[in-house]
Specification:
It contains 14 helices and 13 strands. The protein is an alpha/beta fold. Strands 4-3-2-1-5-6-7 form a seven-stranded mixed beta sheet, sandwiched between helices. The chain has a six-stranded mixed beta sheet with strand order 9-11-10-8-12-13. The protein binds NADP nicotinamide-adenine-dinucleotide phosphate. The site of NADP nicotinamide-adenine-dinucleotide phosphate has 26 residues, from helix 2, strand 2, helix 7 and helix 14.
């Protein structure tokens, strides 16, 4: 990595010092599945660090599921959650059946909405309604859910800016792998000439296994058996997951207003192990790349399997790993790889976004500093 993305050491006023009085920030969490639960666990695990080093006391006031929510004025402590295996949600005194996020947002003093409901890139719902209600009601938003942003990126960004609120979505772009942060802050002053990313772990795993001799169907089944690929892997293998992430990164870092219709998308379903073997003989490999390049007067956005030379910074990014390279005029090629993309990694990215909202002045989604 050419420029160091460890923002906390450079930009966060509180980092490295002990802050005595912590600022109380109300949180409401929508979605209590894999990511939502991991986020609650992190709140507990990192409570002391957040108070001491960032001056933040994050107070979880409500947790919403599809059929109701846990609500508490005094704050919900993660260890008090009744939603453990064998326990009945409805038995919790905090459980309010039928409670909706929209209703909760009106009763709690605004802080940050943490959105972790399922991604639907066709309708954006239920997240789209959640994000709009939060931004209209004075809440900052951090989201792991890419659906609403895929459907109405510009509308949501404009709504946040009009209300002087921050909308952040690191967890929706590549979970713990820093992509937008690097483009926004670490490359300040450099011109970004192009961007290339391996942004989907499932397809990278399948292509890696095919490069080792497995056929497509065999590699896909293996990925499903290991819980890497969804039961319905269409969004991943047809390239749409990569396309949405590319859209979010490009719109944020390059200040564009791309929609999914502007991206040429081709997945990996037509790739054979023979093609990977041929690439190997030429000391290359095939990767599903999301790429932004400059055509005369405009940016060109595409997702497709591309031949990658052995000297390319993303050549060695294999299995479920992801990576992104920014090609710049003054800083050369800046590459970031790795970062957990499981629920804990996504939860950590949500927490990072919250810290940035309160600890980096003027932290927005669409300006390069
Ligand atoms: N899993 C990962 O590693 C990962 C990584 C990065 C990003 N993401 C994204 O993070 C989001 C959450 O993923 P996940 O794996 O945690 O999903 P999940 O396990 O399916 O959990 C989804 C949660 O959302 C709740 N929900 C559904 N509709 C709702 C509504 N209308 N109001 C309130 N809550 C509602 C569900 O409620 P019930 O409990 O009642 O069903 C469930 O608790 C997705 O958008 C995903 O794409 C996931």
């Amino acid at each position: 990595v050419g420029s160091n993305p460890t923002l906390s050491a450079i930009l966060i006023p509180g980092a490295g010092t002990i802050i005595k009085k912590a600022r109380q920030v109300p949180l409401v969490l929508a979605g209590f599945g894999h990511v939502g639960k991991a986020f609650c666990g992190l709140l507990q695990e990192k409570d002391e660090l957040l108070r001491k080093h960032y001056g933040l006391a994050l107070k979880l006031q409500a947790v919403l599921k599809s059929d109701g929510g846990f609500i508490s004025d005094s704050g919900i402590t993660p260890k008090g959650f009744p939603d453990r295996p064998g326990q009945n949600t409805a038995r919790s005194p905090l459980w309010k059946p039928g409670q909706t996020l929209e209703a909760v947002l009106k009763t709690v003093k605004p802080g940050v909405l943490v959105e972790c409901t399922p991604s639907n890139v066709q309708t954006g719902e239920p997240g789209l309604g959640h994000l709009r209600a939060a931004l209209r009601g004075g809440w900052h938003v951090v989201t792991a859910n890419k659906g609403p942003l895929a459907v109405d990126f510009k509308g949501l960004r404009d709504l946040a800016q009009a209300n002087h609120l921050v909308l952040k979505y690191s967890a929706a772009t590549a979970a713990a792998l820093p992509t937008i942060d690097v483009g926004l802050y670490s490359l300040a002053g450099a011109e970004i000439i192009s961007i290339e990313g391996i942004l989907n772990g499932t397809t990278n795993y399948i292509l890696t296994r095919m490069g080792e001799g497995a056929e497509y169907k065999e590699a896909l089944r293996e990925a499903q058996d290991q819980g890497i690929a969804e039961h319905n892997p269409a969004l991943d293998v047809e390239g749409w997951d990569t396309a949405v992430k590319l859209l979010l990164i490009a719109n944020s870092v390059l200040g564009l207003d791309l929609t999914l219709q502007d991206i040429k998308v081709e997945g990996i379903t037509q790739i054979t192990s023979g093609l990977l073997e041929k690439a190997k003989q030429e000391e290359k490999t095939l990767k599903l790349i999301g790429r932004m390049t400059q055509a005369p007067g405009r940016w060109k956005a595409e997702v497709s399997p591309m031949s990658v030379e052995s000297t390319h910074p993303l050549f060695g990014v294999s299995r479920t790993n992801k990576g992104i390279t920014f090609w710049t005029d003054t800083m050369g090629a800046v590459t970031v790889t790795g970062g957990k993309s499981d629920p804990r990694g996504a939860a950590a990215a949500l927490l990072k976004d919250i810290i940035h909202i309160f600890c980096i002045p003027n932290a927005t989604t669409s300006f390069r500093l």
